[in-house]
TrEMBL record:
The keyword RNA-binding applies. GO terms for molecular function: RNA binding. The lineage of its organism: Eukaryota, Viridiplantae, Streptophyta, Embryophyta, Tracheophyta. Keywords: RNA-binding. This is RRM domain-containing protein. SMART domains: RRM (SM00360). It comes from Punica granatum (Pomegranate). Pfam families: RRM_1.
Length: 134
């Protein structure tokens, strides 16, 4: 895997299938590890597409889900809850390690930083997946 987390394999193989990564295969995952990450620190105007572009380069990426809730404060920004699914906890842990503290806009001094953690109880989503713009 390249340092930026991109899948550099050919023929659909994950880089881990092609070349062993010394020191990586023996790192134990924490007991709360799941294949879904909970992401905080997204700007209120974030779109699913923007967030997907951040996570898509990582091996094992499946999808991003954004849930928007209205602020409890008058004229406040909406709250964005973000969940990113991976094929397994190890792939999620790799992305979390690489993106912890990622600055959303490097040219804006007031830009937020991402805070990632394993999602608690990341059970199956309810209902069909809506289509269209988010």
């Amino acid at each position: 895997m390249a340092p930026n987390g991109r899948n550099t394999g050919f023929g659909g193989q994950h880089p881990a299938d092609i070349m062993p990564m010394p020191g990586r295969e023996n790192v134990p995952l924490p007991p709360d590890a799941s294949s879904t990450l909970f992401v905080e620190g997204l700007p209120a105007d974030s779109t699913r597409r923007e967030v997907a572009h951040i996570f898509r380069p990582f091996v094992g990426y499946k999808e991003v889900r954004l849930v928007t809730k209205e602020s409890k404060h008058r004229n406040g920004d909406p709250l964005i809850f973000c969940f990113v699914d991976f094929v397994n906890p190890a792939c999620a842990a790799t992305a979390m390690s690489a993106l912890q503290g990622y600055k959303m806009d490097e040219h804006d001094n007031d830009s937020t930083y991402l805070r990632l953690q394993f999602a608690r109880n990341p059970g199956p989503r309810s209902g069909p997946r809506p289509h269209g713009r988010r």
